[in-house]
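--- STAGE predict ---
source: upstream dedup step, 1 unique chain passed
mode: sequence only
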Amino acid sequence: MTMEVAWFGALCDDDYEFLGVPDPALASSWEHCSDIVRTADRNGFDNVLLPSGYALGIDTVAFASAIATHTENIKLLVAVRMGEMHLPQLARQLATIDQISGGRLNINIISSDIPGEKLESAPRYQRTAEWMHVLRALLNGESVDFHGDFVDLAIDPPRVRTVSGNCPPLYFGGFSEPAKETAAAHADVFLTWPDTVASVAATVEDMRERAERHGRELRYGLRSHVIVRETEAEARTAADRLVSRLDPETGEAIRGKSLDAASVGVQRQSALRGDADDAGYAEANLWTGVGRARSGAGAAIVGDPDQVAAKLQAYQEVGVEAFILSGYPHIAECGLFAEHVLPRLDHAPLR
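--- STAGE serialize ---
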């Protein structure tokens, strides 16, 4: 099974030399983030996640439309928060980005709270499900006559269409019951955060069963950090150096900034960190130290090139097809991974 290997655009003020120590040169900006994406494109990555934040970083949709003209091969996994924009406008923007990029758009569906508003989990995922259903229809070029709890819309699709004429793949992650059911019914690629291989295998099997009940099949992805060096000892030293200037109060403040800081997925990352050994390893080559200053994906695959490749292949063997990776600083680690690991992997963009 060919895997998709993606990098991370760090649009949400999430780039450091020392975790938790801000560096103006690494702050999210057009100049810095476009350098990251162009580097990933030159290095042969299949896809790049462009994350979405409100209090953090720069706007994803605006950035994606610009970086599409500065890249050649890499797909753009554009994160959009359901409910944040006018739905027909969002469909038109995404179709336009797909045209600008020559058909290189993928869509990462975000179901966190809208800035300034709060919803309980069940209605928030109901809103997400309705948005995903209608967004897919509009991007498929279909007229919509939908009247739900959150979407009340009768409209023809925008004239602008994607290059393929169809909705690009919808990537989506979430660990609560409403999130999993929403993914099973509406997503194309279900994303999970770093965990033990056995736990990821259990998640994949659970989601397969849920999707089957909806008469559907999903693909599966893993969002993780990575630290690769020529030897395992050097990789572990690099991991320790990354958190060497982090104090607990700063880490807690960073974790609390995100709109999904109290989600079930974040709680699982905290539990994984709590179960790790004294050096922060939950199992061989899976280091949880990143989660000390990050609310989302909170672990890294750490090791020499063979170990990192073997770990990715272990996840692949339990059903993961897509990997969204990142490392600190993002440009430097992108180069290291591309040099040492990417040639060991059979990879290509998901279609």
